[in-house]
Amino acid sequence: MTMPSAAPWFYRVLLTLIVPLALLRLWWRGRKQPGYRQHIAERFGFINVPAGGPIIWLHAVSVGETRAAEPLVHALLEHYPAHRVLLTHMTPTGRATSTALYRDPRVLIGYVPYDLTGAVDRFLAHVQPRLGLLMETEIWPNLILRSRAHQMPVLLINARLSARSARRYARFDRLIRPVLSALTAVGAQTAEDAERLSALGATSVSVTGNLKFDVRIDPTLQALGQEWRAQLQAHQAHRPIWLAASTREGEEALILAAHRILCAAGREPRPLLVLVPRHPQRFNDAANLVMHEGFRLTRRSEVFPNAETDVWLGDSMGEMVAYYSMVDVAVIGGSLLPFGGQNLIEAAACGIPLIVGPHTYNFSAAALAAEQSGAATRVEAVTPETLATAVNTLLSNQLLRHEAQAAAARFVHAETGATDKLLALIAQYHRP
């Protein structure tokens, strides 16, 4: 059977019709995040690549995927010293993360083109990558099919597919099956991910593990967090600190209600909540909610918290490790309401006891393993009362916290090694 060289006509027509709306969305989001209004030509394949060595192209859509890719990027630069790595993103925050992470001139940064046949062809012609690596669930039909038409191996790596997403993809079997079968190979995070991707048409699927377990914790950020904690404790010794990390819309209200219960319990000194929303465009909304609820707020961008502060808003980018390193307990956002959960591995690697809600389907294997190891506590029925109880249990019991910290270290150590497995997979299809 002949491999299609482009997505079906109905997909191409639909995407063409959507592009004006996408541009309007970029402009609208650019009101709060100017980065969305920059480098727009790159989204149509007009990317400037300076002359130099051959290129390995790695696409990581946003911040989480970019951070997850870091150990692999360093390994690629080491194993292929004559090559450069082009990192592409979809979001300005992903691009900014790459800019902050890499100082090596062999690392190039840009936006991935929209999934238009002409834009993809233009991108591939300008870049001429020797190999394409797509992180996690970046399954773009024209991007994959046109890459194969250009005779470039393209791998889906650190691949994950929840049961919910698999059911959704299965509704579009006519579109998805040829696309997944066009992938040169797939490196899946878990056996379950591999099974779902194979069932939808992917071939040459192997289990390579989760790159997020290989991420190196920045010691500078760890030291910053420890410095913050020392400053806080100097003002009010033994003040318990808990973190709500990467929260999504609607979760802040639950968290603040739980914090009110903790503050009303009469504990002295009263606990400090560090609140870090997932998306920077929601920082101001979260700040307004905190003040509306009557809590005394300070913002990372403005002033350091003092003994009077109830909530410290983490309105900064790239400092999550510092926040993890200053607290006693971390609640993982996106899991309290049905968003699928955020990555908990980085928090575990920082040795922090974790609390998750029932909605962890985006990281189901990692969340289950963390829970079974004792690194994480799951709150199945999330209310302000149940959340406050879970947080208070850990804040009140130092021995329990230490046991959870040790379990977190064992949990992360047991799952490392994805980088080496992916390098071995890449070597099968790319020989310099």
Number of helices: 17
Task: Provide the gyration radius in Å.
Answer: 22 Å
Global mean pLDDT: 93
User: End-to-end span in angstroms?
Assistant: 30 Å
What is the strand tally? 14
Strand order of the largest sheet: 3-2-1-4-5-6-7
Assign the CATH architecture of the largest domain.
Answer: 3-Layer(aba) Sandwich
Uncertain spans: none
Query: Helicity level, as a percent range?
Result: 40-55%
What's the name of the CATH homologous superfamily of the largest domain? 3-Deoxy-D-manno-octulosonic-acid transferase, N-terminal domain
Fold-level CATH name of the largest domain: Rossmann fold
Level-1 CATH class name of the largest domain? Alpha Beta
Largest sheet: 7 strands, parallel
Shape: globular
Which short descriptors sum up this protein?
seven-stranded parallel sheet, alpha/beta, 17 helices, 46% helix, Rossmann fold, 15% strand, single chain, 432 residues
